[in-house]
User: Fold NADP-dependent 3-hydroxy acid dehydrogenase YdfG from Roseiarcus fermentans.
Amino acid sequence: MGKILVIGAKGLIGSAVVEALGADTCIRASRSSDETVDISDPKSLQALFGRVGELDGIVCTGGAARFKPWDQQSDDDWAFCLANKLMGQVNVVRYGAKSVRPGGAITLTTGVLAQHPMPGGAMITTVNDAVEAFVRAVAVEQLQVRVNAVSPGWVSETLQAMGRDPSAGIPAAEVAAVMVRQLREGPAGTIALAAKG
Assistant:
C-alpha cells in the first residue's frame, strides 16, 4: 500500500496494525516513538505532518478517553476526552489530509461503547460517537482521500490484563486486520465493527 503513518504505533492495537501492514513502509508515531506526536496538541500534529512528507495513508489508533462513574466526572475529565479522542482525531484529518496522496485513506478509531453505552462510560461513548459522526460528515466534504473508522470491541489482551476472561474479546491482531482492510478498501464515511459475535 505504500508509505503509511501509524499514529499510536506503540499501543496494543497500533503495534498490531504495524505488524499487519507487513511489507508496507510504516512510519511509527506516538508519544514515545522515533516520530513523536501528541494528538491533543494541534502544533504537535502540524509538526509531524511537516516532517513525514507525502503519505499513502494514515491509521490513527491514538486518542485517550477516561472511564469514571458519572458523579466523579470533572470538567477536566471531559476536556481531556474531547481534546484527545475527539479533537485529536479530527485534527489528524484536518492537518493530515493534505499529506495523503489523492486516492489514499485515513482510518480513525472509535470503540464499541459508541454502540453499547455502559455505566461509567459516558465520556467514552460521547467522544466515540462524535468521531463516528465526524467520519460520516467529512465523507461529503469532497476530500481527495477516503476517511473512515473502525470501532473495536473489547480486546482480548486488554481483558486479560484486567483479570477478565479474554475469550469474551477479540484479539488485537484481528482488530488490526479490520483496520488495514478499512485503510485499503473501506469506503469513505463507513465505520467497520471489529467485535466478537
Q: What stands out?
A: The chain has a mean pLDDT of 93. Helices lie at 12-21, 42-52, 75-96, 122-138, 156-161, 172-185.
